[in-house]
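Reopening this ticket.

The earlier resolution said the output was attached, but the attachment link was broken on my side. Pasting everything inline this time so it's all in one place.
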Amino acid sequence: MQFFGVPFTVFGDDSLQYLNTILGKRAFIVTDNNIIKLGLADLVTTELKKANIECKIFDGVEPDPSIETVVKAAGIAKDFKPDWVIGLGGGSSMDAAKSALVGYAAGIGPLDLAPSTFYDLRATAKLMCIPTTSGTGSEATWAIVLTDVAGQRKMGLGSYETMPDIAILDPRMVMSMPPQITGDTGMDALCHAIEGYVSTWRTQFTDGPGLVAIKLTFENLKKAYDNGKDEDARKAMMYAASMAGTCCTNGMFGLGHSTGHAVGGLFHTPHGRAVGLYLTYTMEYLINGSGETTSRYAEIARFCNISRDNDDKKCAKALVEAVRKLAKSVGQPLSVKDCNIKREDYIKQMEGLVDRSINELMTSAVTRVPESEDLVKLFTYAYDGKSVDF
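Inline output:
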């Protein structure tokens, strides 16, 4: 038995108007202070008030939200008693909203969430996500990423009940993204789609969204980065991010995410930048040891008109170079040393980097599962920007 889950998705111009048609009494909006300053929360509350829905805003979400933050949000939700929990913002805000719903409706801490347990969360409140970035795809996934501050660890959580009921993709919400965030989040979307497409958990249902998301990203990320007012490129990247989320959450993430999470937890590198950086090194690692994944990469390269070579390995390597070229064009680092991480600090944390990577579930969802020794080499090669040859 397998599953494929997606939220009811409203997209395109003026999508926020859908908010004035929903039924309910109270909406608890989980976001960050920057979203408030940009006036994006006002766009949401204006439409909800037309539906006679009372709103309460929690704007205390930080990048890579901590356990303490989501517990605090859940406590406020319990007092307010909403019938809608709305994640408004980037992946951090949407993930925090999912966790807040769990704490409010199930009365448990985020670390107590068991993927196989049914909590009947919707008996208490429904979940909606409205992204203001184009990358995490959290609006289309059940995944939750939280930070254990004390343990310097990013944790992947979630269950099928943390899949949003509704996702609203209104291009107005992403038009103010600065170039750096456009690049960071765009590479996150590309990583989701590529890793989901080659995951051992993939299905025929995930292949389509993954391929289209990859093609849209190659065609539109640079345009959105160069000109943030390009509405067509912004829309395409919004849709690409959501489809990429659908691909990877119904399949699984891969080594780019497990290694990127490790670095993000220990060195606080932004999520999209970290996973995008490690994506090409882990792709090379898989090409060197898996004909199956090499063939899948070749399919991507041909679909996106990156290479038409009959040799799968040549196509796959062309895809790696295309990813690197795109990353460079949108201001992304191509090596760890470019992230201003000192070599001695990086080497000092090597045991922690390897341990965190090995213990990520997504590490098991690739066709070449690395041992500790290979991970040490991968991390070392990535620091120096050296192509993986093992």
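Reporter confirms the inline version is readable. The beta strands are 8-11, 26-30, 54-58, 84-89, 126-131, 144-148, 153-157, 166-169. The chain has a mean pLDDT of 96.
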